[in-house]
């Protein structure tokens, strides 16, 4: 296998090659660090690269492998720069935090380390994870490897760009309103937002009243599922939790073709109250609906009631997350400062929580009739880097709400959702994709269906020219 094919090989395959001693953790880590050094100055997908630490870890893993290797021994990965890795800078995309180093590991980082991964560094994020594009004052903007004029999305934009560019096979991200699924759409990847309670927020806790979730980005469904297995699990004191899946998510992904039962699938190209997707994103949904019907599933138009009243309370909870972050407003970018100043009383916050809980009951009731909902990931394709930079905050927020409209539904209810590429592209060479939302705590059905779609219409063979020259 040549170095380019190795860089784009699935993480599960890389782990197998390490176990069989066909490659070493040190060789693989050095390959990725070389690619990052060569290409990331143009891409901006990392805020911090810990090359010395990664090489030391990879060298130790090469020289002293235990008899029973953890599942991803020696496989490189990135961690989003909203999450804590002990001894590593964590900026939250904010200029006031450039010298801040974490003194602890987030719980899911501890699990990632325990699985044997080598951490390459911290991937770029929008400031405090608040925006669906990754442009902050403290760093150059993150760009899309499929077309450098365009955004890789946000807030897990750096994670998605780095995987799409072959800087690692797999990445961790977080999603409080589409922040995994949107970048997966923008960069042609699989992105899983798991169910509420699947991945712990230890030791700090959840700051968004259950809207946020830690999840995965990868080239393949099996890789994304396998990393979710690693990250999942209750940690003492979690406010909500789910039992461990049986079988594991990666087992589901690898055996999906073996007798999957027909599902009841609803689809929609419009999201109330925002409106219809543009023609390219709508066509991706319609083509996927046709494919699913050909695979034996029962597919029909449908969309849950209740979402029309979701926008305002969701925005209020998002604002309060910014207000509670502990950073002074004068250190924030203009939009976040404006959101901070919008404020809202404790009573307003509680009413918003109650409203979203009532709406969630209406939405989840829809899934008494359907196993899965198929919708766009975003309502229109990728925007250019800086396209909204000169708009006033209210205009930016209105555009953000419309673009990401299909995503907050699953954050509100806590349901799992997965974004998938379709293997099709815009005239600008940018990937298109779709999103499927599952029943509460039922990632397994989503992963099985995603693997079935992947087998019918493979996409991982596509690579951006920027990353292959």
Taken together, the total number of domains comes to 1
The CATH topology comes to Amidase signature (AS) enzymes
Shape summary: globular
How big is the Rg? Answer: 20 Å
Fraction of residues in helices? 25-40%
Could you give me the name of the CATH homologous superfamily?
Answer: Amidase signature (AS) domain
Strand order of the largest sheet: 4-6-5-12-13-11-7-10
- Proportion of residues in β-strands: 5-15%
Distance between the termini: 17 Å
Structural class: alpha+beta
Q: List SSEs in N-to-C order.
A: HHHEHEHEHEHEEHHEEEHEHHHEHHEEH
Quaternary status of these chains?
Answer: single chain
CATH architecture type = Alpha-Beta Complex
Low-confidence parts, pLDDT < 50 over ≥5 residues?
A: none
Largest sheet: 8 strands, mixed
- How many helices? The count is 16
Strand element count = 13
Q: Estimate the mean pLDDT confidence.
A: 96
Domain Amidase: 27-446
GO molecular function: catalytic activity
Pfam family, one: Amidase
Protein name: Amidase
